[in-house]
Specification:
alpha/beta; 23 helices; 4-stranded antiparallel beta sheet; elongated; 55% helix; binds adenosine-5'-triphosphate; 10 strands
């Protein structure tokens, strides 16, 4: 009953995935790590009637998860299962107290990241990559460069084989079923062969057959590779329940049971809580945890676990009555024998590929995803061309006509605003969705934030630049602007850099706010800044808003473009009006608009500074969010 690690299951249950042990033989052996914890408390700040109050979610609990075992953390909804996993995995740090041990040593943050991975409830995988592509890129990002590409490929194939994903290797991830996606998210993390795997609700959304397959697979992974596997679970069927080696049951943030599933009924019966005949023990456990057998029973159970938890870090905790003392003893002896081997885990920090290799693979991944989403890409380019043609039609030939200078100013403003919006909106919506994947991958140590951000910019900047040029070239020509190369150069550069600056604002909004808020705040911010470029002359701006005029990068771009079109010693303009052209001399226009003394170089410097500062701010905000635990 005790040695679940060695107890390979022999059911012939027609499952898709049965080859784990064999297929993963080629993987480098990782140290066995037992995880134990004591006096674990987790507190959050909440607000009641606008008053800040502390809410304790985990109340000084203890427990032990052993290598080679699959442990289910169970309990009713809201009892603190995910919180416990978050705290143990190091995902939630602030607000937690207590001791977490890896084998005999207190948990070290870096070591924990090196030997464990955390797979959260939602399947945040890259929809547009195939299963094999996802795995290959993960292998390149997570394994050291000293591992050859051939060896990485064979490791990927082994894992796909082990998790029953080989036949879906070339399937795009978005076409996978829920169970297959879950298996893929595990496979992605198994590449580094972590000693500890935390899985939050891995069976949610799966039908009973998929659940059963999935749990068998996890049990196999735990047994064959001596991994410590811990997953949260809601209310499993009796059959599923039995597949686990250990159950850790929580009730309102307190432990009421830890031990094998088969001991649940006898354990509670000894405490005069009797399971009705033919009742699913998992249901019974939840009912006890909810308090259906009386709250005094629960209090008694809390007290028992508290006393037994003082038994020590690496022993069983709850099952401490006479019948089970033997079990505890056996495990402790086993611990002593393997102590030397266990301490090894501290020396094996994985060497990650250097940042440029990470950038290369992340860039390659982004390009592959863009290529696979051609419709979106073409639509983005086509929209720029279509608007260029509409604007050109509306402002046909206004660029070289003294009678149409004001119309040309509107064209410049419209162009500016259009490219500002396309830059902004292209990323403001996508980034919040992207953030969830980034969070998972970054937490599991795939790459650094710097590499990630550079790889995103390496794709987004050229793409937005291309879109801008698709707009600028026809619009400039058809609206009859000056054909001097210098003026065209300034026009194109200012519009493109403004669009990229706006894109950086989109990144910032997407990184700092939830989607619903960012799609509102981003455009409002842009409108506010654009008002100070066009809708109001400088002398008319109320003094309290003057700073906004100077701050506005859209204003900087708008004034610079008009200056480069009508300044820089442009001669007298042809006039289509036979009677009178007020702005025959373009200097007159610039003077009246208060643009005559614009220094386009300093404005360009300001635009670039704005762009860079926003990138730095965005990276800082993301870094803070990713590390705020
Ligand atoms: N940041 C927070 N602020 C306030 N309350 C929180 C916070 N995080 C968690 N909680 C509360 O702590 C309790 C435990 O949450 P947790 O998500 O761990 O429960 P769970 O057992 O995983 O639930 P479920 O099975 O429904 O996912 C819940 O009552 C939840 O509302």
């Amino acid at each position: 009953m005790v040695d679940h690690a060695k107890c390979h299951r022999t059911e012939n249950n027609n499952e898709e995935v049965q080859t784990t042990g064999r297929a993963l033989q080629s993987f480098p052996k990782k140290p066995e790590v037992h995880l134990s914890f004591e006096s674990l408390t987790y507190t959050v700040n909440t607000y009641i009637n606008l008053k800040k109050v502390k809410k304790e979610i985990l109340h000084g609990i203890g427990g032990s998860f052993r290598s080679g075992q699959l442990t289910a953390v169970m309990g009713p909804s809201g009892c603190g299962k995910s919180t416990l996993l978050n705290v143990l995995a190091g995902y939630s740090i602030s607000g937690s107290s207590g001791k977490v041990y890896l084998n005999d040593s207190l948990r070290d943050k870096n070591q924990m990241a090196n030997i464990s991975c955390y797979i959260q409830q939602d399947d945040y995988v890259r929809d547009l990559l195939t299963v094999r592509e996802s795995m290959t890129i993960a292998a390149h990002l997570k394994l050291p460069t000293t591992v050859s590409a051939k060896s990485k490929a064979s490791q990927v194939e082994d894992l796909l084989d082990a998790l029953g994903l080989s036949i879906h290797g070339d399937t795009v991830t978005k076409r996978l079923s829920g169970g297959q996606k879950k298996r893929l998210s595990i496979a992605l993390e198994l590449i580094t062969n972590p000693s500890i795997l935390f899985l939050d609700e891995p069976t949610s959304g799966l039908d009973s057959q998929s659940c059963s397959q999935f749990v068998s697979l996890m049990a196999e992974l735990a047994h064959n590779q001596s991994r410590t596997m811990v997953c949260t679970l809601h209310q499993p069927s009796a059959l599923l329940f039995e597949k686990f080696d250990q159950v850790y049951a929580l009730s309102s943030g307190r432990c009421i049971y830890q031990g094998p599933p088969s001991s649940v009924i006898p354990y509670f019966a000894e405490r005069l809580v009797v399971c009705p005949p033919y009742h699913n023990p998992a249901d019974f456990l939840i009912e006890v945890a909810i308090g259906e057998y009386g709250t005094d029973v629960l209090v008694g159970l809390f007290d028992t676990t508290k006393i037994t938890n003082t038994n020590g870090r690496n022993g069983y905790h709850t099952i401490c009555d006479e019948d089970h003392e033997e079990i505890e003893l056996e495990i402790r002896q086993e611990d002593n024998n393997t102590n030397d081997e266990q301490s090894l885990y501290k020396t094996e920090l994985l060497k990650k590929p250097p940042f440029y290799v990470q950038i290369y693979h992340l860039y390659f991944r982004n390009v592959t995803m863009y290529k696979r989403n051609k419709t979106n890409l073409l639509l983005r380019i086509a929209a720029h061309l279509a608007v260029a043609l509409i604007m050109s039609y509306m402002y046909l030939g206004v660029g070289n006509d003294a009678a149409q200078v004001l119309a040309n100013m509107k064209f410049v403003y419209g162009s500016n605003l259009f490219l500002v919006y396309t830059g902004l909106m292209a990323v403001i919506v996508s980034f919040p969705l992207e953030y969830m994947i980034l969070k998972r991958e970054h937490f599991n140590g795939w790459y650094t934030l710097f590499s990630y951000f550079i790889s995103v910019l390496l794709v987004e900047i050229p793409l937005q630049t291309l879109c801008c040029l698709v707009y600028i070239v026809p619009a400039y020509a058809i609206t009859g602007q000056s054909l001097e190369l210098v003026r065209f150069g300034y026009f194109a550069v200012f519009l493109t850099v403004t669009s990229l600056t706006s894109q950086s604002v989109g990144f910032l909004c997407g990184a700092t706010m939830p989607l619903k808020m960012s799609v509102f705040v981003g455009p409002v911010f842009v409108v506010l800044l654009s008002v100070f470029g066009f809708a109001i002359r400088f002398p008319d701006i109320p003094s309290m808003y003057v700073w906004l005029h100077h701050f506005s990068f859209i204003r900087a771009s708008f004034q610079s473009i008009l200056y480069s079109l009508y300044g820089l010693d442009r001669g007298v303009l042809p006039c289509s009006d036979e009677m009178y052209c007020h702005y025959k001399n373009p200097v007159k226009f610039l003077t009246e608009m208060e643009f005559a003394r614009v220094n386009i170089y300093s404005e360009f410097f300001y635009l670039c500074s704005f762009l860079l500062c926003t990138y730095v701010l965005t990276t800082t905000v993301i870094w803070y969010r990713l590390n705020k635990r």
